[in-house]
Amino acid sequence: MAAAPLARRSGATIASLTLAALAYAVMQMMVVPALPAIERDLGSGPGGVAWLISAFLLSTAIATPVLGRLGDMFGKERVLVVVLLVFAAGGLLGALATSLEMLIAARVIQGLGGAIFPLAFAIARDTLPPARLPLAIGLLSGTFGIGGGLGLIASGVIVDHTSWHAIFWLGIAMPLVAVVGVRLFVPVSPARERVGIDWVGALLLAAGLVPLLLAVSRGRAWGWGSPGVIALLAAGALLLLAWVRWERGRREPLIDVRLLARRSVWTVNATSLCVGFTMYATGYLVPQLVQADPAVDGFGFGASTTSAALFLLPAMLAGLVCGPLSGVLASRFGAKRPLLLGVAVMALGQVQLAFMHDAEWQVYTGTLLAYGIGLTFAMTATSSLIVGGVPQAQTGEASGMNTMVRTVGGSVGTQVVTALVVAGGAATATGFTHAFALCGVLLALALPLAAAVPLGGRPR
């Protein structure tokens, strides 16, 4: 008789954690279709508005390990509630924004919500029965694609009928509803031993990533061989090396770099870097491509913001099916096979988009493969492999590192494809071809990385 109440309680916990993850997933992509409208309204260029994505992802990459440590110290569900409230505060600032700088600041605050995923994964592993864990991981992972698709579609409707400011009002409501669910249905997560927060490590990580992104964003304008770009790249690389050395010498590092050296971890993270690059790059490229005016630009379909979002609707619907399917395959055969399948299908979709995007059906097909089927399989498998490949005590840390790696890839990807697409201040057809082709090449390189992942991946 006790099994039914336990199943109901665990079901409510899974639903609440999924709702929290969905709040972040929706907002991370909701801004993308609105970028042209924001660009026109605030008088910025494509390179400027691209920072609305990169700043968001950079904030996620830096804050996630810090917030994961705080979860270990004070209880994961408590920190999850605080993160959701801060996320809502970022939405309020965005809703009231009157300048690009103010809007970028709002996105930096919202980027702290990236910690929702590793905190949710760790809570699931700490509190759920083993039989329910694969379902929880599949649902949480699936929110990346599903939530992103919902965000893209909702954004189009909102921008076309109201204003891009309304996007951020929705970004207030969703996390606040999630807070109620977490407080009511997520069990208390016992605080672990008090550990120090490596603030120096966090500052070094931020100081290393920012110059790299600046170099990528300014490379075309300054020249890739210019002294300024070379100096930024060198400074970023040296600071990241200093960060690694600092972390190796700490008893309580921000990120355990020795954990990164495990084959079960570094192979998955390297694959996630490529997947994150192409995931966010595609989410940026497709709306920009289809909204281009063929009479002015010589390519595109002149789609409205709503129509642009609908180009990704088949991909979102595919995610609804492929997420649970990937979880079933991972439970039966291990998560490595779905990962290989997902990366291969993503690569196929990117190659098609690179050389076939002159007709609407070609864009639909390419995004279905790259952003729907392939991405969902890859994301679900990655989460299973990370959770199943580390000791339980390090689930939050390992998931946080994976989130950080993926978002760093997304930050770099957004800036790189923006630099490829924009020439002389305007997007070009050749730029889109080069950007999609680069994503395809990167995913082809990710295939041997995925093949090197150890067998297994069934969540323990």
- CATH topology tier name of the largest domain: Growth Hormone, Chain: A
Q: What is the CATH class name of the largest domain?
A: Mainly Alpha
Task: State the share of residues found in helices, binned by percent.
Answer: over 70%
Rg (CA only): 21 Å
Mean pLDDT: 83
Fourth-tier CATH superfamily name of the largest domain: MFS general substrate transporter like domains
How much of the polypeptide forms β-strand, as a percent range? under 5%
Q: Tell me the overall shape.
A: globular
User: What is the terminal separation in angstroms?
Assistant: 26 Å
Descriptive report:
The chain is mostly helical. The protein has 20 helices and two strands. Helix 4 (51-74) packs parallel to helix 6 and helix 13 runs antiparallel to helix 18. The chain is globular, with a radius of gyration of 21 Å.
